[in-house]
Request: fold
Amino acid sequence: MVVISPSPTLASLVAKFKHWLAGHASQQETEQLCTDDAGYPGWAEIDKYFAFLLAHGSIASLSYAEQLDLLYLIARNWDIGTMIAWLSPHESNLSNDGFLKPDDFLCLATTLTTLPQAEFRDAKYQFAVAGRKFGVLSLPLQQVLLDFFNDPDEYVKTSALASLGKLGYPALPVLLRQAWEVVQG
Reply:
């Protein structure tokens, strides 16, 4: 008799990651996000599942809890850059795991802009950087990037500012002035 294991869910993938993390990092390192997330041996399973979601157009049907799980995994994937292709120079490629529809990207990014927890910060700057790959600044993308610009984290803010600049945001001088005033304190 062949036993077929159930397909993973986002919650189970997050649980596996957190279980591994608990054995490889102290609580303080985990709280400060000073962990070797790239060293997790289960990235192939996560990438495969994300590729499955992308191939089947399942991102739009994710519940809010599933979006949070996915965004957590994306955040932890930051220095690998497979889930969100923020490290990739290819302008149209939003994910290295498959075709991430622009609407799905914006849906996830919009959810991300509402999350204040530090564990999502690494996802925020990935989305802020990858936003420049759109080539055209639509109103929904502009709103997401402006929300990222208003994030308290300076790297998220700077990444959003750079994307807005690349996409020709017309009020960029105003944002630059605001950013400069914050720097001067």
